[in-house]
Structure prediction request, 677 residues.
Amino acid sequence: MAEKEVIETSEAQIAVHWKEEGYYYPSTDFIAQANMSCESVYDRFSLDNFPNCFKEYADLLDWDEYWHTILDTSDAPCWKWFVGGKINASYNCVDRHLAKNKNKTAIHYVPEPLDEKYEHITYQELYVRVNEMAALLRDFGGLKAGDRVTLHLPMGPELPITMLACARLGVIHSQVFGGFSGKAAADRVVDSGSNILITQDAYYRSGKLLDHKKKSDEAVALAAKEGQKVDKVLVWQRYPGKYSAATPMVDGRDYFVNDVLKDYYGKRIDPVPMNAEDPLFLMYTSGTTGKPKGCQHSIGGYLAYVAGTSKYVQDIHPEDVYWCMADIGWITGHSYIVYGPLALCASTVIYEGVPTYPDAGRSWRIAQDLDVNIFHTAPTAIRALRKLGPDEPAKYDYQFKHMTTVGEPIEPEVWKWYHKEVGKGKAIIVDTWWQTETGGFLCSTLPAIKPMKPGSAGPGMPGIHPIIYDDEGKELPRGAGIAGNICIQNPWPGAFQTIWGDRDRFVDTYYARYCKDPNSKNWQDWPYLTGDAAVEAEDGYYRILGRIDDVINVSGHRLGTKEIESAALVAVEVAEAAVVPMKHEIKGVEPDLYVSLKPGYEASDELAKKISGVIVEEIGAIARPRNVWIVPDMPKTRSGKIMRRVLGAISNKTNVGDVMTLANPEIVTEVTKMVQG
Ligand code: PRX
Prediction:
């Protein structure tokens, strides 16, 4: 309970104090061109028509063999969609577009350095490169359908090319966010059982060419310690033909993809027809324990869901230029840079670097250069762009018709700046609420049908039926405006299938809490627990308040407090560690770390720095704590539980509440003095 409270009193507080805002309406021009403008979609996707409504999404795809059973619940709550169907994701994202659109740009790639030219990869070129890479993976890598391969790639066209090459063979890719450490990559290599790691030598971030290859050496060494041998490290080069990392290549283990590819030039690989419910990829995400969970996404259900939502929520048309600024190493990039847009034959933009590099106008210049008209980003980026260049967008000649915000609650004032300045008062905004686990959007307005309301995600998507329970499992009345635990009543095709290798954890984490009958094979008995708190307003719009578990959202990136704590414990001096979310103007929250030391160790600035460094090494720079407070003791309950709620209040300078029942109330004063001065 104590651990739950700390999140509720931090993230939830931010949102709860927003008042309900008025509506903003889409323009008639937008409505006239929208892919979905008919209100009847909500009837078609009502619970009465569940699950057959999702045929509409499946029919956006090309099937090698059409499915016979739309939803199989026999292994509840591991739902199977489109059973009997055979399909290939690479075929659907590439080959099927060639007949009409082979000359169309599939990927616009924008390198970070200003003196490097944009690349425009046509669907034909993508087809050639995906085939050659698939041939390499099969014949040189020895990979076949069902094998897992770990990718640790930065933002560049090589990443989707590698993903689609895997998908062509039925190989399950597991892409690790490029900013994560070698250790984080190692954990994922081990958990997924990958014996090939695909990386890149270097990439640009804020003007610096970073050595990325060295992380793969760490990953391979650490994985070996855990008993997982990596046989080959395949290294893409940032500049083909030139090695840009300082770390040496290891003979007989490391290979330059560009060199090996020469043996496969011109090779064509038939897309392997896979079962709809075979896994397409794993995406690891943070949870309540130190160990990230490998969310397993299916081919047919996932692809149908991201294609459908890209079409109807992102409103992508053939002539649009679509830029989602997320990193492909997160689920947003998988679903809404790669699979959704490419399934629709869109032109999708990939930007290598930092949105504000070298200045606050960069993003808007890219938009102008490429004539981007659909833009997709997160509140943390919007806050940064607003802070650094509130008047920049007006200086550039671009016009968005559509914008997305995703990843964390957006403050209404930030929303209004986004609308007025970035959208120039004309673009519609969708606030899409969803998760790594859910594959695609759960709540959002349908842009031509429902008006926008700053700070609210909107109603459930067609076919997604949210429900809010209180802690006792009682359903809150619809539109009550009371905070509770938001769940989804029904399965949907985009939902992950299980946690890789840990079905029990899957059932426990997401379904056990509100399950009506653990032996039931009816989906009605298995509401999906999202782990978020939310309120539903009278109009049926949901406002997401934040996590109810030990997950925090740093710059829209999901981190488990337990994950950071266990990283801190890697430092030999540390006896106990507690992480609390601390409010931050741009990032939303930052982790603030409290540690107590083992006997015989002394607090010092060097030690604090060392502990911070250990965390960066274990997880990555995004987990770097704001402060490392070395305290004489943690505030604890009489049963010995660390009171994170109290530490959270101290970090955020809010009321610590009643502490007299603690085992050591005096420590609260001492720690407060240390932190607040
Ligand atoms: O707390 C919610 C928040 O981000 C969590 C999911 O994080 P992740 O799996 O990394 O996926 C992020 C991209 C989908 C959710 O449990 N979240 C996501 N979108 C929103 C949001 N909170 C408020 N509003 C959103 N639009």
